[in-house]
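Need residues for this backbone.
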């Protein structure tokens, strides 16, 4: 049976999507309504922009020159810090929804978070990697799912700023910063047709898709890897994200079968990922010359570090509480064993932070040089530092959880959620230790990488 529910439109609001369902599996839709769906197909209007046959309704030309400077690093970070208490309050709701609550997305938008990496010519702040990773780290002190999703949505704005001018005029043309999911797992297929390409595929791990207007999809045509930019409304959205951790990221699957994509919305991946990508010739932002994988590699370790910092805060608060059961001390902090466990966990978190800071500094130093390309030695050191930071964050959370008693494993306790989130993070390829230490060893020894994308 096919169920169709039409989401009601509030006065003055943008038209919403229609959600169609063919499979009777409980599903919470992106707007908070419940449907029976394993497969959701979005049609019609999304975020106020019309998708009709793969075309958007408006195109506006932007000048290439830089607009007036936006807020500084400290201002943005201070705004993010004000969100942390509310993110903690909504963390359980975020897990239940398996996406970010709309209130969270609205607050992130109001704080200007999605503008951090957007070019100034498009109303963004044109900031660097330090602000980007610090935003993710701070958000993770409130909710890891929020940090992960936001980090990728920010990164994908930066990816769109690397495209040719025609696409930039199209996606940034409404004044708001476009939100896009991106996935290449696995790579889809593309076939040349008159005027563009026909693409087919089933892509997984589309983090942030529940809040996105666009999707950046990896496809292959005649052995050449391409990236296709597609309106989310033209794709089938599959409810596939049922996980132990990072449940609130809504990293669902996308599917297309013979979908037409205009030629201007398909770009060679090598061109897009190069330092001399089309966007770098339009905007002066140095970060646009940074290798494509650089920012992707930062999301997981930044989220893990912020989560570990939240865990050590929870641990300290617990140790200072009076009237601990089954002990002679008035509080757990008076126990020598508790003092030793806290100092050990604190030291491991510090190790995670130092490795993370080292990786950030390597990337910033490379970015400041002409071309912005890190050397093989720098790439090896950068990836190794991030992997070791992730490992230390995981170890710190493990130490804290093992010393926090049975109550920390109640589903209402934030520590058990932090542990589940970090466990999932450490399984992401950007923190997968074995291949990283192998390739890092080759780079540090001057042997060259056997994985070109490392």
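Answer:
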């Amino acid at each position: 049976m096919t169920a169709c529910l039409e989401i009601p439109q509030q006065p003055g609001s943008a038209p919403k999507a229609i959600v169609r369902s063919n499979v009777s599996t409980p599903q919470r839709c992106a707007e908070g309504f419940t449907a029976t769906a394993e497969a959701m197909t979005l049609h019609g209007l999304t975020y106020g922009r019309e998708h009709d046959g793969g075309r958007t309704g408006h195109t506006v030309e932007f000048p290439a020159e830089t607009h007036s400077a936006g807020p500084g690093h400290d201002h943005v970070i201070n705004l993010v810090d004000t969100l942390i208490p509310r993110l903690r309050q909504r963390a359980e709701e975020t897990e239940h929804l398996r996406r970010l609550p709309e209130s969270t997305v609205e607050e992130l938008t109001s704080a200007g978070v999605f503008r951090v990496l957007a070019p100034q010519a498009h109303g963004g702040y044109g900031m660097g990697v330090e602000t980007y990773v610090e935003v993710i780290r701070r958000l993770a002190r409130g909710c890891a799912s929020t940090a992960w999703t936001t980090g990728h949505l920010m990164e994908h704005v930066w990816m769109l700023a690397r495209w040719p001018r025609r696409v930039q005029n199209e996606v940034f043309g409404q004044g708001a910063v476009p939100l896009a999911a991106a996935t290449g797992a696995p790579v889809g297929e593309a076939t040349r047709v008159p005027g563009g390409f026909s693409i087919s595929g089933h892509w997984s791990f589309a983090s942030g898709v529940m809040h996105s207007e666009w999707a950046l999809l990896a496809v292959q045509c005649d052995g050449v890897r391409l990236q296709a930019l597609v309106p989310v409304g033209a794709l089938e959205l599959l409810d596939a994200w049922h996980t132990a951790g990072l449940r609130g990221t809504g990293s669902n699957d996308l599917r297309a079968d013979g979908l037409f994509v205009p030629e201007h919305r398909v770009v060679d991946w090598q061109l897009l990922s190069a330092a001399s990508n089309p966007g770098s010739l339009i905007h002066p932002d140095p970060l646009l010359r940074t290798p494509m994988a650089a920012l992707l590699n930062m999301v997981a370790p930044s989220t893990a570090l912020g989560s570990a910092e939240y865990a050590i805060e929870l641990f300290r608060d617990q140790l200072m509480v009076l009237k601990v059961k089954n002990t002679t001390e008035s509080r757990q902090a008076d126990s020598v064993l508790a003092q030793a466990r806290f100092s050990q966990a604190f030291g491991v978190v510090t190790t995670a932070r130092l490795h993370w800071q080292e990786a950030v500094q390597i990337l910033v130093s490379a970015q400041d040089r002409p071309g912005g390309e890190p050397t093989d030695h720098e790439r090896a050191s950068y990836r190794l530092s991030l992997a070791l930071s992730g490992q230390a964050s995981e170890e710190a959370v493990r130490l804290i959880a093992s010393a926090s008693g049975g109550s920390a494993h109640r589903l209402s306790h934030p520590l058990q959620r932090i542990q589940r989130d970090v466990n999932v993070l450490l399984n992401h390829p950007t923190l997968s230790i074995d291949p990283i230490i192998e390739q890092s060893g080759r780079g540090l020894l001057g042997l060259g990488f056997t994985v070109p994308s490392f």
